[in-house]
Amino acid sequence: MSGDNRDILKVEGLKAYYQMNYFGVEREVRAVDDITMSVRRNEVYGIAGESSSGKTSFIKVLAAATRPPLRVVAGSAKYAFQSGPIDVAHAGPAEVERVRWKHLSYIMQGSMSVLNPVRRIGRTFRDFAARPLGLSGAAFEKRVVDHLGRLKLPPEVLKAYPHELSGGMRQRVTIGLATVCHPEFIIADEPTTALDVVVQKEVLSLIREIQQQMGSSVVLVTHDMSVHANMADRVGIIYAGRLVEEGPTRQMFFAPKHPYTAHLVASLPRIGDVTQRPALEGRPPNLAEPPQGCRFHPRCPLAVDKCRTEVPPLIEVAPNQRSACWRWQDVKPLVGAGAPAGVTA
Amino acid sequence: MSALLEVGNVSKRFTMGGLLGRKTVDAVRDASFTLHTENPEIFTIIGESGSGKTTLARMILGLEDVSEGEILFHGKRVGRRMSRAERLAFMSHVQPVFQNPFEAFNPLKKIERYLSSTARRFLGTHDRAEIERAMDAALQKVGLSLQEVQGRFPHEMSGGQLQRCAIARALIPNPPLLIADEPVSMVDASLRMSIVNLLKDLRDDFGVSVIYITHDLATAYYISDRLIIMQRGQIVEMGDARTVLDNPEHPYSRLLKASVLSTDDAGDGKLATDPAMVERAGAMVGHPGRLVARRDGRSVRVYEGV
Lengths: 345, 306
Fold this sequence. Notes:
The complex is a heterodimer. By secondary structure, chain A is α/β, with parallel strands linked by helices. Chain A has helices spanning about 55-60, 95-100, 110-115, 120-135, 135-150, 165-180, 195-215, 225-230, 250-255, 260-265, 305-310; strands at about 5-20, 25-40, 45-50, 70-80, 85, 105, 185-190, 215-220, 235-240, 240-250, 315-320, 320-325. Chain A has a single domain (about 40-65, about 85-270, about 280-330), classed as Rossmann fold (3-Layer(aba) Sandwich). Chain A has 11 helices and 12 strands. In chain A, helix 6 (about 165-180) packs parallel to helix 7 (about 195-215). Chain B is of the alpha/beta class. Chain B has a domain at about 1-95 and about 215-265 and about 270-305: 3-Layer(aba) Sandwich (Rossmann fold), CATH 3.40.50.300. Helix content of chain B is about 35%, strand content about 25%. Chain B has helices at about 55-60, 85-90, 100-105, 110-125, 130-140, 145-150, 160-170, 190-205, 215-225, 240-245, 250-260, 275-285, and strands at about 5-15, 25-35, 40-45, 70-75, 75, 95, 175-180, 210-215, 225-230, 235-240, 290-295, 300. In chain B, strands 6-7-8-3-9-10-12-11 form an 8-stranded mixed β-sheet, sandwiched between helices. Chain B is globular, with a radius of gyration of 20 Å. The chains are: A alpha/beta, B alpha/beta. At the A-B interface, helix 7, helix 8, helix 9 and helix 10 of A face helix 7, helix 8, helix 9, helix 10 and helix 11 of B.
């Protein structure tokens, strides 16, 4: 791993478990199990994974929103902000307060339930941003209106209640809330899942635009691979609490080196193509008792005995591409996508 | 050919507000199409939120009365004013599958209970063996078995499996028509294809027609035979799925197709939608226009003087 100062976030050996104790019975859910990765400055890093794969727990740690029963057991998540470094896995509330919204920001899922329904948008903006920005009155108002203009929202939305806005506008408002302080690092959790295609594309291009204008880094979490294809510079795939593959988007789509990635990519239907698409059978593993060895082996078409007993390490299989699979050399793209020139196969 | 479902010039108007400032909203305007008994097909209704696709489905299910026009199922009128016996008979032929499987099941009750109460109702029997046989047969159709499901609660299954159970429940009375309202939008991408493939198998192997409501053009292209595209309550284009989606003609259909995120140029970061396209599609809203048949079998709404 390159440890130069291009990295804004470095996660090392991060383990975060849900530890519960009901009536004397201890239960441990290993939602994040030994994840090591880094995010560079000015990059969109996509995290993909199905529900209950631990991706939300992972970004909770990244967003410094770890609350019991979720606890960081080992490892670190270090940010190198302009104001100084911070390890959010172990930071106290006061330290987190200093970076929250100003440096580290969060676009939440489900804009309807995020915005307070009985407050006008302007009031929500004031609650959120007035303190980190250190502005008040007309200066604050102007800053917010300017920022809304950038998101192509009229200033009137500040006087509106959330239910008076359409779904796309509400999502733009939440993006506005998250970016009004010009953060260096933005975490976007399923920002477009509830939106339909036309609005989805608008919202995504807006996130991309804002990111490029401000030069911030974005971690984009969604299970929809087609969003990653169009948004992310690099993609990491999380399966059952572990990072199983990571690499530049193009390589991940045209030359995946993990069977799970190959499946995710192959299961996307395309207009103009009616060949039978394979569906992945089985269900995601229960993280309270994950399978031995490679956690994907019960559903994996390539599984051999070694996969059932030994955990594969995340190793570099191609330039900048890492995969945790014993048989990565045998992984072939499942549908003939016709890799364009310039992609290392 | 005899008609399974006839939707004839159906409109739905909702009234909002009280005595003062009363407004009407046309959720569906003048929609017509027919499904036939002989060739089971997957008929897709595409549109963004607010295009009236769910209202149309609710009217077909008899949960909402039509404002104008009529919906006939096997020649009988569908609506909220059916008697109990009529409704039961109707429901044994038309069954819904809903969007979110986690909300469709009662979290405190075992899954089989949901299935067995449907079986008891529609098969009109209290014989346990017979009910179990019907449940198992329906579960087999969706690639599960009663053994796997018995004794389990909804939270013990994945979203994809639950959605399959919901489809199995709908299949218990052996209906010739399923109405699936966004059945895959809440299901994980990796499990999505198993549901979509299942709908396809139901059509091919069991002769079930499916009205598939979605905003996802890619899966629509993948499974459907015919489709209609709705914009603000109006059908703007209808016809054979492949013909329409390969080369959409109406500006709104084009916009929808252009908005589909393609994976062909993965990693290039191309996202911008042509604003002229959005404008052109938006300019059509509110004009009545009329559907004109084209030579390749599709119908497109054209507008005079726009």
